[in-house]
Amino acid sequence: MSTKTGNVPLKQDFSHLKTGRINLTILRDSILQQIKRCMNQFQTEKSNLPKQFTKDKCVIIDDDIKNLLGHIQALNELGANDIRIFKERQHDTSDYKITLFIVRPKPIYMEIIANMIRDEMNKLTQLKTKEIILKQYGIIFVPRQSRVCEEKLKEKGVLGDIIIDELNLDFLPIDTDLLSMESYDCFRDLYLNKDTTPIFNLAHGLITLQQLYGIIPNVFVKGDKAKQCYDSMMRMQREVPDNEKKVPTQIENLILIDRSIDLITPMMIPATYEALLDETFGRGQKSCAYTHSVEVEHHVFINLHSLQFFCLPDNYEIIDSSLDDIKYVLNPTYSKEQIEQLDKNEKMVRAYDGTLYLPGIVGLNNIKANDYCNVILQALINVGPLRDYFLQEDNYADIRVAPGDIMINLVKRFGELVRKLWNPRNFKAHVSPHEMLQAVVKCSKKRFQITQQGDPVEFLAWLLNSLHLTLNGTKNSNSSIIYKAFQGKMKVYTRKIPPIDLSEDEKRKLLAIEEYREYDEEIPYLFLSVDLPPPPLFRDEFKESIIPQVPLFQILTKFDGQTAQEHKTYKDNFLKRYEIRKLPPYLILCFRRFTKNTFYLEKNPTIVNFPIKNVDLRELLPEYRIEPSALIESPSTTYDLISNVVHDGEPGKGTYRVHILHKGSGTWYELQDLHVVDVLPQMITLSESYLQIWERRDVSQLFTKT
């Protein structure tokens, strides 16, 4: 054990705690009593040692257990002539009267111990003495014995020659105010082997604490595994005799948290990252920052508005080039030359943590159920003109809004997210969308949440319209970057249908009335909602569901101006025809997979067959139908796929992922929250596409790099 040197630390004040500081000496004394109890089984008088035994006791102990016992100064309690570190090889202890193993319950250890005992027994047998039966072997399992280990010893034929005990080293006081439960295989057992033994051990350790320090009145649980531990602890607590529960309460609160719970993402905000200066409180002597620097000796602070570093409490500015990376991560900036090279770059960059990644192909944290937002954000940031606009903060920094209008936060947070996702100098190969999603929740008045699943199409429609209006967009098609990139125009022809119970003469009379004549109106659109054919009701000859397939061009005939669809209202029926008048630079297609009936939400599993390149939609435009000679390939009507959003699983319960084309390398990537993998283009067409973004071939001519 090392001894701390230097200045004597100040006495800490625990007066704010109701019960004061917990006395961990009680736990240490309890552990020492357990060790003495175990050792009392292995005692002998040295004067009575048989002649073949020259020494009394040898203890062979796990290295980590030895370190733990060393923390509480318990090694002397073992009363051993020799203490050895257990290794995966045999030890010769034939000259000891007692051989004691203190080990973790691992089957491989049992095999080593069994082989060692059999070899020593054979050696003592060759001495031809009756005193062989006086040789003692013992195993003390930490923290508990295992049935698997007992079966292994039984299989080796040495179980009857060993005294077995257990030492419940659950929580160890490794410092004056720190307890530790050493469980090196906990993650593997729980999440890989599905073994709940670590949960049982934790619950048992908590019961031991409550026997020593009283019942803990307030228990807070977060996560499924934590809930299992709490339930196990309560069952054990009911089995404890009443006379052992009458200990005054010394521990007020217990917090159980799963290690799978994401504790970082909810705190990934600038105030948590840098600890830093709030413009309201400043850095004066009465500020929180000043107090924090004195109490915790955290001296470096940054102003998130000016990006200046200060040293507190001395209050001087720190100017050092080594801090530039932090400034750039907080607020990435891009020159026009850098923006022009984004779609040409095919090289990966290395994050500060050593991970390789492609800027723009970056994972997003899923805080709880915001994958439906992540796929839309990842798809939009790869739309070139939209990306280029938001990479330059000057484009939207001076937008005028009405006083108190919170929608400006949505624009700023979206721009900030775009800049961070395309940052080639990130510290990690993923980005947290937490600030953007906070703005979404607030600006949508909690219509879109991060804690429950939503519809990506609804989120996309709301986001595009909100960005357009906040950027001072109007009905003019060039009034914002949103309309420039995504707005098209279509003409809708509507005709009211006469009631079916009328005679033919009555129907003809009604059709002559103005109310039943066909009329048209031209409307703008940001995306096209495409209907899928209904799935078959019957199964195939193998009694399996048939998954239908439909070509993309077949379902796009809805917009050719000739295909009529019936629309019903509570009162009247109408026939409508849709005719595309203008194709946008970026065409968004939404496939209507989900329909609501009276009882539940249904999902259409139809697979849409589509090429990922060279999709010519000129036949949807009326001028090409009128003039057949115009049916030649044109870049103004030819599209390439750049994003494909997919839904997997049942309606309302599934997950979303997105396929993104990286233009620089020409490689497709699949992104699902933090997971980023490359994918073959052929696999994209086999997925249940829900939303797609197509890029027109002449986009580079329409948009000037800004």
Keywords for this entry:
five-stranded parallel sheet, eight-stranded mixed sheet, alpha/beta, Rossmann fold, about 700 residues
Summing up helix and strand content along with how strands pair, one would put the structural category as alpha/beta
Using the CA coordinates, give the radius of gyration.
Answer: 36 Å
Q: Note the beta-strand portion.
A: 15-25%
SS element count, helices = 22
Q: Which of globular, elongated, flat, extended, rod-shaped describes the shape?
A: elongated
Provide the low-confidence segments as ranges.
1-14, 45-52, 267-280
Average pLDDT across residues?
Answer: 82
Please describe the biggest sheet, giving its number of strands, its sense, and whether it closes into a barrel: 8 strands, mixed
- Distance from N terminus to C terminus (CA atoms, Å) equals 64 Å
> Based on DSSP secondary structure assignment, what is the total number of beta strands?
32
The helix content, as a percent range, equals 25-40%
Question: Could you give the topology of this structure?
Answer:
Layout: H1 25-39, E1 55-61, H2 63-71, E2 82-85, E3 96-103, H3 107-125, E4 136-141, H4 147-156, E5 162-166, E6 172-175, E7 178-180, H5 186-192, H6 197-213, E8 218-222, H7 224-239, E9 253-257, H8 270-274, H9 288-296, E10 300-303, E11 308-311, E12 316-318, H10 324-330, H11 336-340, E13 349-350, E14 356-357, E15 363-364, H12 371-380, H13 384-391, H14 407-421, E16 430-431, H15 434-443, H16 456-470, H17 481-486, E17 488-497, H18 504-511, E18 519-525, E19 528-530, E20 549-551, H19 552-555, E21 560-568, E22 573-582, E23 586-591, E24 594-596, E25 601-603, E26 607-609, E27 615-616, H20 622-626, E28 638-648, E29 655-662, E30 667-672, E31 675-679, H21 681-684, E32 689-696, H22 699-702
Parallel strand pairs: 1-2, 1-3, 3-4, 4-5, 8-9, 15-16, 19-23, 20-26
Antiparallel strand pairs: 6-7, 10-11, 11-12, 13-14, 17-18, 17-22, 21-22, 23-32, 24-25, 27-28, 28-29, 28-32, 29-30, 30-31
Helix pairs in contact: 3-4, 6-7, 12-16, 14-15
